[in-house]
Structures are given as C-alpha cells and as structure tokens.
Amino acid sequence: MRTLLVEDDEMIGRSLRQALEGAGWSVDWVRDGGLAQSALDDGGYACVLLDLGLPERDGTDVLRRARARGDVTPIVVLTARGGLEDRIDALDLGADDYLQKPFAFRELTARMRAVVRRRDGAAQSLIGTPALQLDLGTREVLVAGAREALTAREFALLHALLERPGAILSREQLEHRIYGWGEEVSSNAVDVLIYGMRRKLGPDAIRNVRGLGWRVAAA
Hints:
About 40% of the residues lie in helices and about 20% in strands. The protein has helices spanning about 10-20, 35-40, 60-70, 85-95, 105-120, 150-165, 170-180, 190-200; strands spanning about 1-5, 25-30, 45-50, 75-80, 95-100, 125-130, 130-135, 140-145, 145-150, 205-210, 215.
C-alpha cells in the first residue's frame, strides 16, 4: 500500500522510509507542510504519517486543511510533542491516531494497519468478498479457503481493487496506488502484475473491462 511520510528530520525520514519499504509499503517522503498539502491534494494514499513541527506549514495546519475539505485519508501523527493538550488537539482536528517519538516500528505498522482497517469499515483484518478476501494483518489473500502469500505490489493492487468490489479502476488509478513518486513504471507493468495474480488466484479473479480498466466481482 502507498503511504505519505511527512517528516523534516533527514535521519528519521530516511530510516522510516527504508523500514516501511522493507515491510512492503510504497512510500512518498516529503519534508515540509507545503509539499505535504500538495501530495494530499493528489490523493491515492492508504495512510499518512504526519509530523507536526514542519517548515513552510505546521502539521496541525496540514491536518486541519485536509479534514476541512473532506479528505478522509487515515492520518497518524508522529511527533515529539507529547503533552496531553497536543494529543487532544490533534485528535480533535481529525487525526486517526497519535504516536509520540521515539516509538517502536512494529507498533507504528500495527497502528497503520488499524487505521486502514477502520477506513475500510472492517473491525477485523479481512476485506473483500466471500470468494476473495485480503488479510491486512498477514498481507495474504484468501481464495477458496486457501491462503496465498503476496508480494508488496500484488498486495497494493488487490487492496485497491477490494476496497470497492465491482468498481472499475483504470491503469492510471492502479499505478497511482501501487508505485511511489520517481519510480519508473513501464507501460505494461500493471498488465504483467495482473497476469501473475491470475495465475495465483484464477483467471476470473481480476476481470478486464475493455477500454476502462480492471475490477473484481462484487460477490
């Protein structure tokens, strides 16, 4: 899944991006509030990790503006500000969770999975249809009762499709969800990925709608 990391500290940002990518997330990293606002305007993120003390525009302002315009992307605040009023203010402004630095990376990723599940309307870790389900906790797909392991990009692709079973996603929409900024994407990258997924899940698991894109059956 694709996440936006908003962190101006070079060492923390580089370490977090490396760890998140190693855990299968596609990461766009920006270092100030202005760039964060632009990235959020573009959309396509499963989750945002937002520092509060940022140059150009404070993180609280980024959060306030995002919620004011109706952006429901899950936002986890990561900050050194640990006071009670800071936590209350961020949560009241619309943050989905709040984690004080320093923190354990495993706790961070667990909280990220939790806010994504809540956005998807799932208290449990499974989303999808009775025939095809995605386990957000283990990053596996369940098809016909059997579990299959997924690569990071396979997981991102299925997550995008299973958020709204039956909805058609275009090539551009899928690329936007799977790949981060600056990644070179070949013209047939999505086709190759879907071809591999069909070999794992069956030829009808992901259906092509000619001229429009791809979808999974709603039921």
